[in-house]
Design brief:
alpha+beta; Beta Polymerase, domain 2; 9 helices; 5 strands
């Protein structure tokens, strides 16, 4: 372990507590997204999420980012200045799925949206497209509640294809790409964007052709209430007698 972050990890239990909290937040958001995806499969016979990946930022990456920003490496500074210690990448089929997932997760009562960067409506100069959200979720510890940041990146399969390969290529040349390579990568990004739009248009045409609708049946109020209700044994016995 480099001395740059070895000392803080070895001398402070706050480091371990920080990792525990971010890991809990990551699992919390993962569960929320998985539940939404599974519900869509039941209601619409369709999964808007193709797959998800998640990670806790490595000590090396944290130390590198803190050094780059000329910040002292402390747990307080990490929590204060690094928004993507916990990160989830959500891969969707179509652009419409991205905004649908973002809306559904942001409407949950225990989720607070702190920041949004829409690189789909406003792509980066190199052609990068994705939808980024910084959200907080409450983590319940034995003696307190900690609202914890998680970065969610949502993109289509095509966007992820381009971003993954672009990242690998730039890593080989340490981010210093010649102008001709930057130009060709931007052209590829434009092709990927066209492919995304074309596939989404074909999918919408198929839905119209098949008569598919997205009318949602509301959750029955009485049944919904039963999920959070416990009847005492006497009530259950009386209900059984009446039924007989």
């Amino acid at each position: 372990m480099p001395d740059l972050y070895g000392e803080i990890r070895n001398t402070s239990e706050e480091w371990e507590r920080m990792q525990l909290i971010y890991d809990a937040a990551l699992r919390e958001v993962n569960t929320k997204l998985e539940t939404l995806n599974n519900e869509f499969k039941i209601k619409h016979q369709y999964n808007p999420i193709e797959h998800m990946t998640s990670r806790i930022k490595s000590p090396e990456s944290i130390a590198k980012k803190m050094k780059h920003n000329d910040r002292e490496l402390t747990v307080e500074n990490i929590v204060r200045y690094i928004n993507d210690v916990a990160g989830i990448r959500v891969i969707c089929s179509y652009t419409t799925d991205i905004y649908r997932i973002a809306k559904l997760i942001s409407e949950q009562s225990d989720v607070t949206v702190l920041k949004v960067k829409d690189y789909i409506q406003n792509p980066k100069p190199n052609g990068y497209k994705s939808y980024h959200m910084i959200v907080t979720v409450p983590i319940f510890l034995s003696d307190t509640i900690v609202n914890t940041k998680v970065e969610i990146q949502i993109r289509t399969i095509a966007m992820d294809f381009w971003a993954s390969l672009e990242h690998k290529m730039y890593y080989k040349i340490e981010g210093n790409a010649p102008e001709n390579i930057r130009r060709e990568l931007k052209e590829c990004a434009d092709l990927v964007a066209f492919l995304d739009q074309k596939m989404m248009a074909i999918n919408e045409e198929i839905k119209r052709y098949s008569g598919e609708t997205e009318d949602e049946k509301e959750f029955d109020g009485e049944l919904k209430a039963l999920y959070g209700m416990v009847l005492d044994e006497q009530n259950i016995f009386e209900e059984t007698i009446v039924a007989e």
